[in-house]
Amino acid sequence: MLRTATRPKWLGLLVLALLGAALAVTAGRWQWAVAHDRAREEAVREVQERPVEPIADVIAPHEGFPDDGSGQRVDVTGEYEPGSGFVVVGRLLDGREGGWAVERLVVEQTGANLPVVRGWLPKGEEPPAPPTGTVDVVASLAPGEAPDTATGLAPGTASTVDLAALVNDWPGELYNGFGFVVDERDGSVATPPDGLERVPPPLPDTSLDWRNASYAAQWYVIAAFVIWMWWRMMRQEARRDDTPAQERAVVQTGES
Questions:
Q1: Count of CB atoms within 10 A of residue 115's CB?
Q2: Are residues 211 and 160 in the same domain?
Q3: Sign (positive/negative) of CA torsion 82, 87, 92, 96?
């Protein structure tokens, strides 16, 4: 079989088969990327089309985070508690190192605490004080992050938004989630970020666009089929080449 496979004819066909398989794999990878991109676009559009809801209509203190709550924008009225904020370190924004400025917002309606990310600040800088008095905040909700297990951090810093730790650190009830500030108003005037940059809310979990994912799978099958067809055709010819020699061996054995 090796002798047949190394003939110029089959080597040439093998090159064509490999080229065809490579093209099919490339097309499959493109369709796979499209499947992810379309799912992401659908998720973004779905979140953006949701109306802003009062926080009381979405989640209550100590209530489990809703399954479809990621990215839901809520309207919250309350006051920032001075001296309760901290910085979540190790967060990038457009490739720059820095952290999230997290503040404790006491919700007016319930008196419970809602951690909110007011914005991003460069590494090493101190977060500005939040506005005083009653503020109206539109925030994009997110579930709590993994427990903060980092050691050696400076006071007033953390590595995650650890809700379990905040339950012990902040008096009063706590919402089982946190928010990224989208808009913040003191009365009717939008308050500036005070040197902070707003953090784009993370996208909710997205699945694949299954139609494009199926197209990708078809291209991968085609790539495997092309190689298999070359192997099958080459093996058939190799068997035809070997058959006469076998028959001669049988005849010679019979005559002797």
A1: 26
A2: no
A3: positive
Neighbours of 109 (CB within 10 A): 11
Phi, psi of 22 (to 5 degrees): -65, -40
110 within domain boundaries: yes
Residues 79 and 181 in one domain: yes
CB neighbour list of residue 94: distance below 8 Å, 6 or more residues apart: none
* pLDDT tens digit sequence for 99-137: 999 999 999 999 999 999 999 999 989 999 999 999 999
User: Is residue 30 domain-shared with residue 139, that is, in the same domain?
Assistant: no
Q: Are residues 97 and 142 in the same domain?
A: yes
Residues sharing a CB contact under 8 Å with residue 174, sequence separation 6 or more, in sequence order: 61, 62, 112, 113, 114, 115, 163, 166, 167
- Which residues have C-beta within 8 Å of that of residue 236, sequence separation ≥ 6? none
Q: How far is CA 27 from CA 40, 106, 208, 215, in A?
A: 20, 52, 17, 9
Neighbour count for residue 98 (Cβ, 10 Å) = 23
Residues whose CB is less than 8 angstroms from the CB of residue 226 and which lie 6 or more positions away in sequence, other chains included: 17, 20, 21, 24
* Site of tokens 């109306």: 51
User: Is 247 part of a structural domain of the chain?
Assistant: no
Quote the domain boundaries for residue 22: 1-51+206-235
Question: Would you say residue 6 lies in a domain?
Answer: yes
* Domain-located, residue 253: no
Phi, psi of 150, rounded to the nearest 5 degrees: -70, 150
**Global pTM value:** 0.66
pLDDT tens string 216-237: 788 788 888 888 888 888 888 7
